[in-house]
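Thread: quick sanity check before group meeting

JM: Hey all, I'm pulling together slides for Thursday and realized we never actually wrote out the predicted structure for the chain we discussed last week. Dropping the sequence here so it's in one place. If anyone has concerns about the input, flag it before I start.
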Amino acid sequence: MSYNEVSDEELEMIKRRKLLEYQRRLEEERRRRQLELQKQVVLRRILTPEARSRLANLKLVRPELASLIEDQLIALAQSGRIRVPVTDKELKELLVQIYEQTHRETRIRIKRK
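JM (edit): ok, ran it. Output follows.
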């Protein structure tokens, strides 16, 4: 058998592996969507419509930050550490706190010789 010839068994094994990989990716995507739906249901219960709107706007600009905040809000609500429903004003205060904790001012110094 030459290098370019591939047996039917080998082809079948390759097809099977590709099919399994495709099925695994589909299952991961289904789980990710299901988790996102559950997250949205919980957020709908703990945020006022105005706060949800603000969070949706933030998600358009900074999706990773919005996701982090969503997770924190859910954890705080489940542990009873925040009052539900969270208003837009309270969400803004939380966003300011997070910004102050994570923001680092960039300074550029030019030293002349």
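AS: nice. The two ends are 73 Å apart (CA to CA). Helices lie at 8-46, 49-61, 63-79, 88-102.
JM: adding both to the slides.
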